[in-house]
Give the backbone structure.
Amino acid sequence: MYLVAIGWLYVGMMMSVAEAMHPDGTVLGAIVTFFLYGLLPVALVMYVLGTPLRRKSRLAREAQEDAAARAAGAAAMAQSPASIEPDAGGHSASAAQTPGITPVRKPD
């Protein structure tokens, strides 16, 4: 895969050199030729062809992070006491919530 990319860049470079050395050619035209015929297509093809490898490495990294989180969770469970004391504070378990709509009764 890399050999084809190197060959394509070589051809693009030779095209840009030919553009620069031509009596009607310019250096700006050579630069544009190298980017449009050489560098841009190679970068696009390499990005598309590298997608499965990036996906595989991402999934492996996520699996490794998941395993580390599970191990940390198991270690935390092993170190915690068998029973947890209930909250002995005088505060309610959750803050009082005001309802969004006030209940309205039907008039009698």
